[in-house]
Amino acid sequence: MTILDTAERHRNIDSPNPLDWISAAPAAEVATRAPAKARAYAIRIQPGLVLAYIVLAIALLWAVAPGVFTSYDPVQGLPGQQLKAPSALHFLGTDALGRDLYARLVYGAVHSLSGAVAAVAIGLFVGTALGVVAGSAGGWVDHAIMRLVDILLSIPVLLLSLSIIILLGFGTVNAAIAVGFTSIASFARLVRSEVVSVRRSEYVEAAFGSGGTFFKVLWRHVLPNSLTSVIAFTALQVGSAILQLSTLGFLGYGAPPPTPEWGLLIAEGRNYIATAWWLTAAPGIVVVLVVLSINRVSQAIGRAQR
Amino acid sequence: MARYIFSRVGQALLVLWATFTISFVLLQAMPGDAVMVKFQNPEYGLSAEQIADIRAAYDADGSVVLQYVHTIGNFITGDFGYSLQAGVAVSAQLAVNLPSTIRLAGLAFATAVLLAVVIAVLSNISGFTRLRSFVLSLPSLFVSIPAFWLGIMLIQIFSFRLRLVPVINPGEWEGLILPVLTIAVPISAPMAQILLRNIDEVLTRPFVSVARAKGASHAFVLWRHVAKNAVLPVLTVAGVLFGELLAGAVITETVFGLNGIGSLAEQAVNFQDVAVLQAIVVISAAAFVTINLAVDLLYPVLDPRLKAKLGGVA
Q1: Is the pLDDT of residue B21 over 60?
Q2: What DSSP element (H or E) covers A19?
């Protein structure tokens, strides 16, 4: 192995997103060297996959049918119920306008989750397209696209999304676009490496040899076989997108105030940090639980495929 | 070797140039005249002289190509234009804010390294499997915590509940304790994870078995044989860690109301101060590229095995 190979190998974990290099690249590296060891290691650090699925199911149900989980209104406050501590009536307490915090969390799920899914969809589609083109075309096209990816990866994720926000303006959709944009490069790099390895395989050569056109072979053989490891990575990205969106929401660049978006809830609760601890604690715990669960599930998917 | 250095430096410069170009194109996507009208707004407090300067700096009357050449020349000489919101040169703002951010990030980095090493050591020397699995699950917990929320929780617990660290008018260093922790904890997680993985991997190597066969204790093997081999690969993520530090700074400075590059970036977005954000983006990309370049060039120096291989190739 030359030093250039080593540099190339390191670049796999160069993604600005730490989640990318924790599970995706190094795990694969360990797996190639000592598969049995890697598997044992992964199983050891992974308690409560079932719990993770339960958390995600609840979060999804919150997003789909919030009315089932709470009878309170998430936007309209109750008079005389301002800043009540958690009790049997409001079991996560109320905010400064007398709104039930639990209701706001339940109704906020749809904003946080759909934003994250939209963001990852952008990264997945654009990144996959770029990666497939780069990996299958090769030559200068490959070179140009991968240099572009390098550039995107050299800008810290948060600054990249702030640059998009400053261009597009504030709002739920713009925040999702900004977060999605930041994941394009890592998707492109992953898909490209998959495509390159699939392209070298014999059945693809055979498909070309038996008269398949470029796009037909791409669609029928290269793409489906390249997507397996992308799925685990996609799940992982959803968790990271939720974190990034909540950060943008917290900074005030996401949904405007009456919206019960999770990051915004924490930002609003911040003014009552000395008197009403539940306003910041509860939304944060929800975000942590959901992201943690997504990461667990992603790990499980990744292992099942290996 | 000289050829390798040359090509790596060239690549780094290319990435930097492209980053600037992309940010320039994005800046041009902003309606140009509107930007100029903004500059002339008396609220920004720019003198006629400064406005003329800005027009000259951006070559507002010339073609886009001329503007591009002009701006790139200005960036190379350290002139980043004027801040819309503050009405002063961006370079002056950076000079004021950079030291505090560097101090914050430096302290946070040191703390993160310490935390990561403690996690790695604890999970390797503890005999209790339960403690080990708990320590091993820490990194994945840490990366799932939103940094801004962590900051708020630290304020809540340590300042308001336990009254250990004052948040209102704290001393200069006292005020840094919680911000440093806020940045350090999320960064220590991936570091610890890489460290743990490396330690596990190095422990399978033959020289470890040899050392054990000679009667070395587990602690001795870890310290004498494993530590060096496991720490080195962490260097390769230095660039990524830098990005994380910077993102951490943006969030922490906002949460704790500190001055620095992070709060500068946040205000730039709030006031659509494109010149400021562009300067921060280009500078941080430059730092990222420089760090990666330094790591790539230093790695063979630190790891003699690579140097030998390189010598064989070149």
Answers
A1: yes
A2: helix A18-19
* Residue of B4, B14, B26 with shortest CB distance to A167: B26
A128: closest CA of chain B, how far (Å): 21
Residue B167 at interface with chain A, using a CB cutoff of 8 Å? no
Report the predicted TM-score, pTM, of the whole model to 2 decimal places: 0.76
**Angle B288-B291-B295 (CA atoms, 0-180°, nearest 5)?**
140
Are both B175 and B30 inside the same structural domain?
no
Are B117 and B259 found together in one domain?
yes
Phi, psi of B89 (to 5 degrees): -65, 140
Q: Give the list of residues 6+ apart from residue A180 with CB closer than 8 angstroms, or none.
A: A118, A119, A120, A121, A122, A123, A126, A241
Instruction: Decide if B300 and A3 are in contact by the 8 Å CB cutoff.
Output: yes
pLDDT digits (tens, 9 = 90+) for B144-195: 888 888 888 888 787 777 777 666 666 667 777 888 888 888 888 778 878 8
- pLDDT tens digits, B183-237: 888 888 778 878 887 888 888 888 888 888 888 777 787 777 787 777 777 777 7
Find the radius of gyration of the CA atoms of chain A.
22
Q: Is the dihedral of CA B44, B50, B55, B58 positive or negative?
A: negative
**Distance in angstroms (rounded) separating the CA atoms of residues B230 and B197:** 8
The answer to whether residues B125 and B200 belong to one domain is yes
Kindly compute the dihedral angle of the four CA atoms of residues A207, A211, A215, A221, in this order, to the nearest 10 degrees.
-10
A156 φ/ψ angles, rounded to the nearest 5 degrees:
-50, 140
**A212 Cα to chain B: minimum distance (Å):** 37
* pLDDT tens column, A15-70: 444 444 444 344 444 444 444 555 555 555 556 777 888 888 888 888 777 777 67
Q: Are residues B241 and B111 in the same domain?
A: yes
Q: Which residues of A touch B294 (CB under 8 A)?
A: none
Domain count, chain B: 2
Tokens of A254: 């996401």
